[in-house]
Amino acid sequence: MVDSGDSVSIDMEKICLSGKEYHVPTGRGSVSVIVYGDQDKPALITYPDLALNHMSCFQGLFFWPEAASLLLHNFCIYHISPPGHELGAGPICPNAPVLSVDDLADQILEVLNFFGLGAVMCMGVTAGAYILTLFAMKYRERVLGLILISPLCKAPSWSEWFYNKVMSNLLFYYGMCGLLKEVLLQRYFSKEVRGTAEIPESDIVQACRRLLDERQSTNVFQFLQAINKRPDITDGLKRLRCRTLIFVGDSSPFHSEALHMTSKLDRRYSALVEVQACGSMVTEEQPHAMLIPMEYFFMGYGLHRPCQFSDSPRSPLSPSCISPELLSPESMGLKLKPIKTRVSLDV
């Protein structure tokens, strides 16, 4: 279809949006994986934030045609759900052992081995970003690059620990109640999209609220327990040798965490994109802010958009080599007012 000047011509038949679900057995329980695209292509795995899955955490990004064309042109997508977070999941047995963050990272290795995958690209949001970063530290040869959205790397601060304890008590005594959902929505989204007494909440918040209704409280409780006991992995960040691209909304409760993590990464291999007027879940709230940085990031791996999109006003790329100095909003030739880009990416 062809639309206005800000739209893109796209053949939706070439983009496979129908995924296949696999239940992968691991030594720490079964894991749900939704696979999109051609499994002969390089793999990109995703891991969502607390109480979310691929539908509530990545749908905005992957269902946006321009991002879908970039990602599915280059990758087969493997959406990994935390235990019991997949669509239609039943409650985890209360007597089942609570998995640690190390257990969750080790599950990812078993998923990769199940599908016969080698080194993969990783994309995670907040708690999921922590799990994937830990995975990259433990199994460096299995990670090509990291795309982290509002990531964590330190142990919980006192304020986060307090909020997590409040959520744990709500989950234990009241389940997925209205107050718990409000706390989670504040974790995910900026107040601009959550709405006020005068302004209704946005469609993405309403959709997320409905999807949260489907989560089993015992399953969310177990993932929260693991994240609340996570160790500080700051010291291991310098040893990462894969490229890392970090996005964070300036209204995210984890904004300072992302800045801290960026300061500890090797500047030769990392870049930071701060998105204004956005919460933690940039993938849903402002997915358009991720497109251009991801395009330049992937060019460091020799990947690019399909040629039919090269005349898009949001995609001024060609497969030629681009120097780091060009990774600025002005040099992109675009009005990227919502985005502040701090870049030290070695392309």
TrEMBL record:
Keywords: Membrane, Transmembrane, Transmembrane helix. Gene3D superfamilies: alpha/beta hydrolase. SUPFAM superfamilies: alpha/beta-Hydrolases. The chain crosses the membrane at residues 114-136. Belongs to the NDRG family. PANTHER family: N-MYC DOWNSTREAM REGULATED. This is Pollen-specific protein SF21. The lineage of its organism: Eukaryota, Viridiplantae, Streptophyta, Embryophyta, Tracheophyta.
